[in-house]
Amino acid sequence: MPRAKFTSSDVDLMARLMRAEAVGEGRLGMLFVGNVIVNRDVANCLDFTDVRTIRDVIYQVQGGNYAFEAVQKGSLFYRRPRDAERRLARKNLKYWTQHPAKYSLWYFRPSGDCPSDWYGEPFSGRYKNHCYYEPAAGTCPSVY
């Protein structure tokens, strides 16, 4: 059973975002971003109670801006997905999870070290340029 329901359009959309957000971090970096996308889809807590599809996750607006910067500013996001990224997206949607993004709902790229928390949510780890954060214990059981 897949981690999240998806269509071929969802795979393409997710593949585009994974590449736009983390192509410089290779396959593993893109898979970590994919983990966050799927986690937000299955989460029914915090900022993610209104997102029920991959499309909802990717086009979610928070604070007047898209939640993922690449949707708003990234020219890579608006290019066609490649087969390699489609395979990675399907892998995330079907089964793949790994630390530090296994339970993460957020990530960002700081200019220096990763803060110990991100808006009160605990740091789970870093991969190359991105810091990953998961919900505080007990605040989002649907992710775990």
TrEMBL record:
Keywords: Hydrolase. GO terms for molecular function: hydrolase activity. Coiled coil: none annotated. Residues 24-133 form the Cell wall hydrolase SleB domain. This is Cell wall hydrolase CwlJ. It comes from Gracilibacillus halophilus YIM-C55.5.
